[in-house]
Fold these 2 entries.
Entry 1:
Amino acid sequence: MRIQIKNLTKKYVMGEVEVNALRGVNLNIKANEFVSIMGPSGSGKSTLMNILGCLDTPTTGQYLFDSIDVSTLDDDKLSEIRNRKIGFIFQTFNLLPKLDAVSNVELPLVYAGVDKAERREMAINALKRMGLANRGGHKPNELSGGQRQRVAIARALVTNPGILLADEPTGNLDSKTGDEIMAVFRELHDEGNTIILITHEPEIAEYADRGIVIRDGLITSDEIHAEARKFHHAQL
Amino acid sequence: MQIEENIRVAFNGLIEHKVRSFLTMLGIIFGVASVIAMLSIGEGAKREAIKKYQQLGVNNIIIRDMDLSDKELEEARAKFSPGLSMKDVEAIRQVVPQVVDVAPQAEREVETKYSDKSLKATLVGVTPCYSELLNYTADLGSFIQEDHCVRQLKVCVIGADVAAKFFNVSDPIGQSIKVEDQWLEVVGVLQNKSLFTETVGELASRDLNSDIYIPLSTFNARFEPTKQLSSELKQITVKVEDTGNISHIAGIVENLVSRHHFKNKDFSIVIPVELLKQEEKERRIYNILLGSIAAISLLVGGIGIMNIMLATVMERTREIGVRRAIGAKRDDILSQFITESLVISITGGIIGVLIGLSLSLTISLSTEITTNVTLYSVVIAFLFSVLVGVTFGYLPAKKAANLKPIESIRYE
């Protein structure tokens, strides 16, 4: 699962003002990388995340997702990519409040057309992986913040997407729970998942192997973190 | 399988917002219930009318002697009109080939007695074919026979009310009742005839159950006319081969009788089947009117659904965004919301059908109005509610489907 971005720009029209959210971004992300994208608010990191997640399309430039040019895809195909190949994790969890944990985790499988018995089993397994085997019947409001985020991660994982897009996943959690969640991401990375982490907190970005900083719609720095470098060297 | 999921979600939503869902459904419920109740009243009236006219005979043309004042009667006789008579009967029978049979009938009001009871009744002189033309059958004994007429026998067939009044427990057959100054032997009792409260053209409503039928020949021989100038017959019933050209034949018969009466308008012609058609036409207009009212009610119900669905879409913008982000296609969202409005309208439709059925039952039990629920009215009402659900659910669902995922997922 590779991501290749060439000269990507994104313009918004907000009222009468034209906003250049991204002004020529070049980025390559290989399979099984753990990348953080950091930047202050208004830097364009959320726009980049939306485009990476096939929720939005670029104004100009090229975005190859797994060698497919995303700009050629229609809405249905984009939905399919989001469903099968990308797992989203949001700051506010975005679980459906009326559904219990298992049903929330099942949801992507509903749209993937998996039949009922099978998707239930898959959802329960995903929850087990997140250490929530006995919380399946609980509604989101009966769970703690950390548990909710774990349910959300289970939902992102359940279709085996290969790439996880996390937008400020610890933003609504206390630091201890945040660390726990980040440990989960590390683990998932070790299991072979590609992880792209959007954050504005340097401490959280530290968990990733590669840190990208974006400012005013441009990538200003892109480097392998010290520890990761050590790891890379050890491998070489 | 996704449909199943949609229905489950829709029902959960319905149960969660019980009051809101019920209020939304009200329009549909009233619409469907009123369609069913109104159509059942219309259908009931139609069946009543058909029954009524069937009793007069759908193949019949009825010629009635007009009720004239003494002065008018004198005038008519002065202009050589003999009034309705056996001559007319013979003429119709011989001249008009499409006529199957002709039944003459003479009438007079009489006082009748049995033991210590007395009763006012209508004495009707008839020929045997009368029973066949007007669908009269005897419950007990038999109707007037050919032999009775030929021999001018003093026999009678009594209506159900007369029998009930005079012969409460005993068997009337073979008994004799006194009509004016004549003793008549009862040979038959007619089956109960429903009473019409309305008039059918010139045929004044009359309680057929208190009629006493005797052979026409006996009537002529034994009972003096009440007035000097009275016509010989009160009514001639003409049966034709088929109803197709009944108006045309009625025209011929009218000309014929009119010529015999030297153009005096002292009789009237009633074609029951034509009256039935006329009445049906009027009822159709009435039904269309009622139907439109019900349709407006359904329309209002539909707008109610649309309103609540638009609010629901707004309320659940974020949910829509989440669903889109994890892979729901536009069509998935579209079908989810259409399913929800369908669930509301179909549930409303089912409740409406039940209320409509009980309403029509209540009407028929508590009032004089006859109602009749037909399957097609239930099907139509139900399909209408489904149609309303799809039509008015489409716009909000389309709106939901077209929401941009990134915008809706951040919607607060």
Note: Residues 67-265 of chain B form one domain.
Entry 2:
Amino acid sequence: MNQPITPVSQRQLRNHTSFGQSVRNSFTMAYRGILKIRRTPEQLFDVTFQPIIFTLMFTYIFGGAISGNVQSYLPVIIPGILVQTVITTSVVTGVQLREDMDKGVFDRFKSLPIARIAPLAGALLADTVRYTIATVLTFTMGYIMGYRPGGGLSHVAIAAVLVIVCAWAISWIFAFFGVIARTASSVQGISMIILFPLTFLSNAFVPVKTMPHWLQWFVNINPISHLVTAVRNLANTGTIGNDLAISLIGAAVAVAIFAPLTVRAYMRRA
Amino acid sequence: MGRENPIQLKSVDAPWAVEARGLVKTFGGFRAVDGVDLKVRAGTIYGVLGPNGAGKTTTIRMLATLLRPDAGTATIFGYDVVKEPQIVRQLIGVTGQYASVDETLSATENLIIFSRLLGLSHTEARRKAAELLEEFSLTEAAKRPLKKFSGGMRRRLDLAASLIAQPPLIFLDEPTTGLDPRTRAQMWETIRRLVKTGSTVVLTTQYLDEADQLADRIAVIHHGGVVAEGTVDELKASVGRSSLQLRVEEPQTIERARRCVEQVLRVQSIVSPEAGKITAPMADADKVTDLLIALREAGIRLSEMSVQKPTLDEVFLTLTGDNVTESPSSDEMDVEVSQG
């Protein structure tokens, strides 16, 4: 602090941020997000306990009724639980973004000569860590309960990546609510209203055949159903089909719509 | 050299760190800032003084590119805050009213993240963080999460974070609000040292002694506008002259003393008989000699004599008091006090 500062006239100043700098800033912000997770491990309660409790609960409650026994229900329920848990986790992105933006530290980020998008991109990036934890725990729980995916480890890994990518895409929707909502609890509220029909009105827990016709129509076009089917095909039989393509297209559409909306709303506030 | 780089010429020619004209910011129907003009010379400490809700913070936030002004213009070292915000951000450091650091992270982690964002490499960031923590005597607490920090430590860290890039202009929004007197004095010392390195400091405060102690110039903001601007002495002089206070030894001589004062100084004086005290405005210090001689010749013995300068408190109350029209000068306020 005691050395003299560089005079304004001798500084190299630019009014625009390069792409390289945007990427570097985003990774630094992601690093911050991961540090925060490490400092407050209680944030990981949902991604650790939800896979464990839901997998146990759903498997033993519905196993006998739906598939005759627990063992034959596992290939159905594990991909379903996986998708439901990881997608639910993505709500946190929006809630935390809202909380973060209300804090004093956000003023500092805004006053720094960094890419405007970095705090948003960093938050979304850091949350993939949470999806990974939830994914690994769900498969591990399934394995402990006797689930032996027929597709082998490599296809399970592809399925895991697919779920993480889709959750990241969907997190843009919740990030949008996070940016436009006034309070963190309202973000949670809105997100849950969207999330419940999407995850439960799908083939995640029960066979579609057992539902009324009008409901089957929705369940069959629900992108979550396609994602669940894609994960089942990958993990159980190692096959890659239409559902994988539809899931990825759905993810791309979500990003294409909500990323620009979120960024625009965010920039207006930032 | 200057011909190759037009930007250099431009900033060399700008002696003003801050130049704001007619800044306006409206929230809903409320004009929080209503036509503020400010000019801050580079290398000085500038105080923005005003009561709560006067528009100080909103003004600073506009100058620091955190809020877009609804009307008016502002430049930082010649760069427009609206058109060239990213350049302005390279020239400023902002320390907010509420600590703008990450509560869940440690002091070191905070400084490393800010340093990385400012383009320092990993090792440089570590070195810079350690250096600043040392500088602000936070080394011992470096690894603790900020939740366990005291208010003073948090402010110091906050200021440290603003200094990573060694910006030529630093905004401090109420840097010492809520600090104990000792921590406050340390903060003042730090601010003075900053200016010695060539930085310009713009600080808001509601404490008059803080502005008095630190600021080269002061703007008093009230109801969203600048109501007075100048050096501390100019502001004091604008509100009231110094006053001469005399205390006579024998109370029965007070009436004669008063006549003497009014004859020599040719002013109205105020007498408080029970205290044996006479207060008179002192326009011309030279005449006090005549007065003292006249008093001796009249055989009036004095027990005490003092000159009271108007305090910044008087300035502040006069300028921002809601009954300004009722008490336009400190003299009249004195009358009211002694009569009441």
Note: Chain B touches chain A through 50 residues (CB under 8 Å).
